[in-house]
Design brief:
Blueprint lengths: L9 H10 L26 E5 L2 E4 L4 E4 L2 H4 L8 H11 L10 H13 L5 E5 L2 H16 L3 E5 L6 H4 L10 H4 L2 E3 L5 H10 L4 E6 L11 H11 L3 E6 L11 H5 L5 E4 L10 E5 L1 H4 L15 H17 L1 H23 L5 E6 L2 E6 L7 H14 L2 E2 L4 E2 L6 H24 L2 H4 L13
Parallel strand pairs: 3-13, 5-6, 5-7, 7-8, 8-9
Antiparallel strand pairs: 1-2, 2-3, 4-10, 9-10, 11-12, 12-14
Helix pairs in contact: 3-12, 4-12, 13-15, 14-15
Length: 433
């Protein structure tokens, strides 16, 4: 790429310097911060978005494959969602008593989701997963939890990761990780904890498809030991299928949590499930002033209606299949399968970059993100598709891959990373998938 045409990030750097005076890391979210995007060679602040396009602090334009960390399912400034929110804002946002939108949206979730007999709303995924765990503990009278995947920032989960600073040891001792598609690892958790497991919570799918009837085996094991099965569908819900991954894979959990793209970027989440368990919401304490906030509920209603009317999941799957097929062909043509691979479902797939030659995966991914940003693509850990992505956007991304991935291979061969990378290396938060 011609150096004279390379994007500059002067305003991003200035804004970062200013933000870090009042905000740790300059961001509210680890995955949006300078440790997730290489500083000096990446956009660090966004001004605005439209469809699948965003403009950064320096007015550079990108095709966005992060989609607000999967919260934007239809595209930025979707007309139907915007109009619903504007209409609602004229009659109020947060009230002194429940609003009818709460029951209307709850009824829609019960209609769509197999396990949903009752519904409670929160504002983010951690609200919903923590409520589900508290329900399971109340229902079973047990305290220990088995976890697989990412489930938010609360003590009960984050204490099982390497970023556990501030979590009491007593809390950490109650949470036990197991491995996806490895039923023996979950059996071991049950064996080690002598009928003390209240709940098993897992993402029903992330990077790998379930194998050997894994999800049904998990369900059978839970019920054998009197544990509650919770699917964390914060990402998979309304993305893999309108009824969630539980519909796609034909396994119905006891409870499930939803969030991310259900309101096209507005803050809302939900815990849903069996009536006999959900009824305990009247006894445990899960209560928030903004859980019934009407703008997010109006956005959810409009988003779900738009998804159903426009076959959004089908569109995401078609675009994702094209992307996965094209990317796999590039990797095969390069004969780079030793260090590059593609995984995940079509609607949420991953380009996996492994260490190779003398370079770590962190170094190679840092260079990769630098070069993709220069070509006008905002990427993170995966391909987070939304309805605004069209076939031409996938073609453009694949064209950029045809340029950048051979550049990485050349860097490995020539051992000239330091000549090509001009920023600060990424810093891993922790690995959960």
């Amino acid at each position: 790429m011609n150096n004279s045409a390379r994007k500059q990030f002067l305003q991003s750097n200035l804004w970062l310097e200013r933000a870090e005076k009042t905000i740790p890391l300059g961001s509210q979210t680890f995955s949006k911060s300078r440790i997730a995007y290489p500083n000096n060679v990446s956009p660090l602040f966004i001004k605005r978005g439209q469809g699948c396009q965003v403009w950064d602090a320096d007015d550079n334009q990108y095709t966005d494959f992060v989609s607000g960390l999967l919260s934007v399912s239809l595209g930025y400034c979707n007309k139907a969602v915007d109009e619903a929110v504007i209409k609602q804002i004229k009659s109020g946002v947060t009230f002194s008593l429940p609003h009818q939108l709460e029951m209307e949206v709850a009824e829609k979730l019960v209609e769509l989701i197999p396990c949903a007999e009752m519904v409670r709303f929160g504002k983010n995924g951690s609200d919903a997963t923590s409520a589900a765990i508290r329900l399971a503990r109340a229902f079973t009278g047990k305290e220990h939890v088995a976890v697989c995947g990412y489930h938010g920032w609360q003590d009960w989960y984050i204490g099982s990761t390497s970023r556990d600073l501030g979590v009491p040891a007593a809390t950490k001792a109650l949470t036990h990780p197991f491995s996806y598609n490895d039923i023996a690892s979950l059996k071991q958790v049950f064996s080690d904890n002598n009928e003390k497991i209240a709940a098993v919570i897992l993402e029903p799918m992330n990077t790998q498809f379930p194998e050997n009837n894994f999800l049904q085996q998990v369900k059978d094991l839970c019920h054998q030991h009197g544990a509650v099965l919770i699917f964390d569908e914060t990402i998979t819900g309304f993305r893999y299928h309108m009824g969630g991954a539980q519909t796609l894979f034909g396994v119905t959990p006891d409870l499930a949590t939803f969030g991310k793209g259900m309101a096209n970027g507005y803050p809302i989440s939900a815990v849903v499930g069996r009536k006999d368990i959900m009824s305990l919401m009247a006894d445990i304490f899960f209560s928030g002033t903004f859980a019934g906030e009407t703008l997010s509920l109006a956005a959810t209603q409009a988003t779900l209606d738009f998804m159903l009317e426009n076959n959004v999941v089908e569109h995401l799957t078609t675009m994702g299949d094209k992307l996965k097929t094209g990317l796999s062909e590039i990797i095969n043509d390069m004969q780079a399968q030793q260090w590059l691979s593609v995984s995940g479902h079509a609607v949420w797939s991953f380009l996996n970059i492994a260490a190779h030659g003398k370079y770590s995966a962190i170094k190679l991914k840092s260079l990769f993100l630098q070069e993709m940003a220069q070509r006008g693509f905002l990427l993170g850990g995966g391909h987070n598709l939304n309805y605004a992505h069209k076939s031409s956007d996938i073609d453009a991304l694949l064209t950029a891959y045809q340029d950048v991935l051979p550049l990485l291979a050349e860097t490995i061969k020539n051992e000239d990373f330091s000549m090509k990378f001009k920023g600060e290396l990424l810093e891993p938060v922790f690995k959960v998938r």
